[in-house]
Every structure is written in C-alpha cells, then in structure tokens.
Amino acid sequence: MKSSEKIWNRRFILLFITNLLVLAAFYASIPIIPIYCQEIGITGSKVGIVLTAMSVATILFRPVAGYLLDNFNRYRVYLVFLALFCLSFPAFLAFPLFGALIVIRLYMGAVYSVCGSATMTPAGDVLPAAKITEGISRFAFTVSIGMAVGPYVGLQVQIHMSSAASFWTIFGITVAALVCVSCCRIRYPKVERKKFSIRDTIYGPALPFMFNMMFLMIPYGAVIAYSSIFAQEKGLSAFLPYFYIFLVAGMLVSKLSTQKTIDAGHHRVLVYLSLAVLILTMLSYLFLNSGVHLLAAGFFFGLGYGILQPLFQSFVTGTTPAPQRGVANATYMLSYDVGIGIGSLLMGFMQESIGLPLGFALTAIAYAIGGVVYLCYVDGYYRRLHKS
Predict the structure, then answer these.
(1) Alpha-carbon gap, residue 375 to 379, rounded angstroms
(2) Which UniProt keywords apply (predicted)?
C-alpha cells in the first residue's frame, strides 16, 4: 500500500482531494437547509428537528463506522458509503415533506458517519510509517478548508440561483469526490473479521483527544449555526459569504506559518497560541457592529482552527496502530458531532435569553476548559503514547 516514501504520493493526493470535496459538500448543506425548509413551508421548531436528526444519527452510527472500517475492506467500504452519500442531496428535492426530510437527514447522518471516518484511515495507510504524523497533520487540513469553503459555496449558489441549484451543485461535488477515490484503487489484505461488540466500537486511547476536542468544537458549532442570524440582526448579511473566505484565509496562513513548528513537535505553544486567538475572537463579538470586524473575526477564527484541527487529528493517527485506525478515527470524530451539536443547542437557548453577542462571548469558556484539559492531561498523555 505504501508505494512511495514521499508524503505527496498519488494516492495520498487523490484522497486529500476526495476528503476536501466530501467535507465541502457536507458543510455546504448546513446553511442552505434552513432556508430551503422555509421555502417549502417548514418553519419554527420543525426546522430544528430536521437539522438535529442528522447529528443524532451520526453520533449513534460512528461506532458502527469504526467496526466496518476495521473488519471489512476499508477501500470498498468507503466507495459504497460515498456513493450512498451522493444520493442524499437529490433526495432533498425529490421529497420536500417534513417527515421525509427527517428520514433523509437520518440516512445522511448514518452514511456520513462512515465517510467522515473513512478517508483519514486509508490516508494513514498509504503514508510511509515514518511520515504518518507529518502527513496526517497536512491531510487533516482538508477538514478546516471543507468547513469554511462549503458554507460559502452553498450560500452563494442559493442566493444567486436557487435552493435546487445549490443541492445539485453539492451533488456534483460528491460525484467528483467519488471519481477521485475510485482512481486510488487501494488494495488491502483479507481481514480477520471479529464479532461486532459495542465495547470494541470505542477506541479507548483516542478518548482523551476526543474529549478535549469536544470542548474546542462547541464555539465552532455556535458560530456556524448562528452566523447568518447574527449577520441579519447586525445588518451585515452582505458580508456573510465573505466571512467564510476570510475563514479559509486564516486557515491557510496558520498552516503555512506553523507547519515547521508542528513537524518539529512543538505542539504545546501552538495549542496555547491558537486558544488565546480564539478566546479574544469570541469575546470581540460583544462589540461587533461592522463588516470589517465580521471579516476579521472570520480570519482569526480560521487562524485558530487551522492549527487545532490538524494538530489533534495527527495526535490520534500518529499514536494508533494501523489495524485500529478506523475505530480510532471514528471515536475521535465524535468530538465534532457532539461539540458542534452542543454549540448549536446552547446558542438556541442563549439567543432568546441573553442575545447572540453575549452568547458567542460566553462560548469562550469552552476554550478555557479545553485548554485546562490539554494542560493537565492531554499534553502529557500524547507524549507518553508517542514515545511508546
């Protein structure tokens, strides 16, 4: 499987592009679904139910995803579930009914739980053993870019064309991802299949990283879910699509400026630096009233996550034996599902009680907690695993 001693071998590049496209498609759907629901007459709490259905399915199915990836041919599993994921987006247009959309979102959550875990696993498999931590740190950057580019694309197509056009655009992106991964043709030896057990679907050594990252994703969930409403309240809706462009710019700057430090193993200073930037960014929402400030917030938000997301993913993949990487990644990715879900839910309550500016500022508490968890346990835990 490891056909080259270089990080950027052909298969790694194809998987990098695939994951970027899959994540961009998934995150593009987040801001367009509420608008689409309103267009077809679904409003109020029903919109929340449609949105929440996927998170519930993803969290419940993540452990099964890990089992499938470690007990079946990983490449074939990814191909099948990516093809199933492609079908989600035309289904929104084919079945514009409240009950049907809930079912579609449940289906989408189940298949995405496999897709979201699957690409990281073969990406680690095609890397030389000595380059896994370094390579996955670069590969995990697809998560950051996808989270930023996706909403921008979804909003732009929906605003300038229609919701139908946006869903078809996302469908095209997923088909392009399927073509890319089909060109990889990764061969795996036969796997000795184990009996399914709930206990075996959680990879214990990845839990500290998952728990730590869960706190760090709470503010992210709040911002992604409620930025459009916040922009409307402040009269800054025209700047919102460009918020995501500045988010990507921040991620690119952080990646280009910190990669050598990550490769050298100086993780601690990067974690604290990114947390300081993110805390100040969230506190600045208390007095955010201009488009320039909104774009600056997007840039610094990207700067922080452009460091944290690849870094923590490299912690997991770099300390996990190859046969357990599927379940390890599935366990770790629960941090995104749970953290984003908590952030969205909390902001829903705080919007009505204290308002979005103060609500965004208060989510900075989650960064402080995450920093304490990292300082008191996760940093030393990673170093112990890395040496063993």
Answers:
(1) 6
(2) Membrane, Transmembrane, Transmembrane helix, Transport
Instruction: For residue 21, give every residue at least 6 positions away whose Cβ sits within 8 Å of its Cβ, in sequence order, or none.
Output: 146, 173, 174, 176, 177, 180
Q: Give 207: exposed, middle or buried? Use CB within 10 Å, 0-12, 13-18, 19+.
A: middle
Give CA–CA dist 358/242, Å, rounded.
Answer: 23
| pLDDT attached to residue 366 | 96
Residue of 338, 332, 285, 284 lying closest to 308 (CA atoms): 332
Instruction: To the nearest 10°, report the CA torsion of 347, 274, 326, 78.
Output: 70
**Which structure tokens are listed for 60?**
């419940």
- Give the max Cα distance, the chain: 59
d(CA 384, CA 119): 27
pLDDT tens track for 100-152: 999 999 999 889 888 876 776 677 676 766 666 667 767 767 776 787 788 88
Q: How many CA atoms, within 13 angstroms, populate the side-chain half-sphere of residue 310?
A: 33
How large is the angle between the packed helices 291-318 and 141-160, nearest 10 degrees? 140
Domains along the sequence of the chain with CATH: 1-188 (1.20.1250.20), 202-388 (1.20.1250.20)
Q: For position 371, what pLDDT does the model report?
A: 94
Spans of the chain, pLDDT less than 50: 1-4
The reported pTM is 0.75
d(CA 328, CA 210): 10
Contact between residue 39 and residue 224 where contact means Cβ atoms under 8 Å apart: no
